[in-house]
């Protein structure tokens, strides 16, 4: 929210008086007028009736047309510029309310392809969304013709913004444990600029978490357990591996064996005889289910 200080407001008024002439307009002049009893009317601003980004600043009874910064709207209730389509953006909400009062049920969001207005909503669905606002499940978009959420590949957004990051969906990440909430980007990293494929989570390297990118949209996954222990995603191999393929320097749980002081050959992993490795290397391998490695026979046998 953009909150101008009193000093900044006075500077703004002085600048307007110095550099601007009164702008002709067909809107109602709501400015307090000077009079004998009140020759200097109080400071007053009011919104443009047709453009949410513009407002009028009153200077000695004359309205001067002003504009809020890009991506913001003027809130007549607060008298400041606020983030466009935020809960404080009363102008955009009033436009939706007017359409709802005319019998509309579902309305496409004018700027964001993944959001829409639901005239049946009595309460806000999220503290981030304004009145009547809702959004599609990630990564779906709202179809203006069928008035339903559909897969993004089936929706034509036209001039509406196509949001691709999951963290830009306000309801995609809701953490209930306030004391231990992670940043959304740490849980759902951005795939912007990445080709389709499998990637490690850059905020959780050498952990059980990894992600896939498809059309620059993210999906997160967890490696399945391996030999009764957590699986780890290896950024080098770009796949899930066991702890016996992970160095303790990469993950403190790593149990990768070492070939230091060992002759070339094959050895069992002492902590788990289902695992063996060859030197030099080491190159880790696994016995078929139900068997263990025998150093005497150099093969996997029944226990």
Automatic annotation (TrEMBL):
GO cellular component: extracellular region
Molecular-function GO terms, alphabetical: chitin binding
Record flagged with keyword Signal: yes
Keywords assigned: Chitin-binding, Disulfide bond, Glycoprotein, Repeat, Signal
Signal peptide coordinates: 1-22
Location of the Chitin-binding type-2 domain: 28-93, 97-159
Superkingdom per UniProt: Eukaryota
Annotated Pfam families: CBM_14
Record protein name field: Uncharacterized protein LOC106065062 isoform X1
Source species of the chain: Biomphalaria glabrata (Bloodfluke planorb)
Gene name as annotated: LOC106065062
């Amino acid at each position: 929210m953009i909150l101008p200080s009193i000093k900044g407001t006075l500077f703004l008024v002085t600048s307007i008086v110095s550099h601007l002439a009164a702008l002709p307009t067909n809107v109602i002049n709501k400015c307090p007028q000077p009079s004998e009893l009140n020759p200097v009317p109080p400071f007053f601003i009011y919104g443009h009736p047709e453009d949410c980004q513009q407002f009028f600043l009153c200077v000695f009874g004359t309205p001067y047309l002003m504009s809020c910064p890009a991506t913001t709207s003027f809130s007549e209730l607060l008298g400041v510029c606020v983030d466009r389509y935020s809960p404080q953006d009363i102008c955009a909400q009033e436009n939706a309310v007017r359409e709802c009062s005319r019998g509309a049920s579902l309305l496409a969001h004018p700027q964001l392809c993944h959001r829409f207005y639901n005239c049946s909503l009595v309460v806000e669905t999220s503290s981030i969304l304004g009145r009547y606002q809702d959004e599609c499940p990630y990564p779906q978009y709202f179809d203006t013709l069928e008035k339903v959420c559909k897969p993004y590949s089936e929706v034509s957004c036209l001039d509406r913004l196509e949001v691709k990051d999951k963290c830009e969906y306000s309801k995609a990440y809701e953490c209930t444990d306030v004391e231990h909430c992670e940043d959304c980007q740490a849980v759902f990293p951005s795939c912007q600029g990445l080709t389709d494929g499998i990637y490690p989570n850059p905020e959780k390297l050498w952990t059980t978490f990894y992600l896939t990118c498809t059309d620059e949209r993210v999906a997160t996954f967890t490696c399945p357990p391996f030999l009764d222990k957590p699986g780890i995603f290896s950024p080098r191999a770009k796949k899930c591996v066991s702890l016996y393929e992970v160095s303790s320097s990469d993950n403190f749980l790593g149990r990768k064996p070492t070939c230091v002081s060992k002759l070339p050959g094959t050895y069992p992993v002492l902590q788990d005889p289902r695992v063996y490795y060859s030197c030099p290397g080491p190159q880790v391998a696994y016995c078929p289910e139900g068997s263990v490695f025998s150093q005497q026979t150099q093969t996997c046998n029944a226990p």
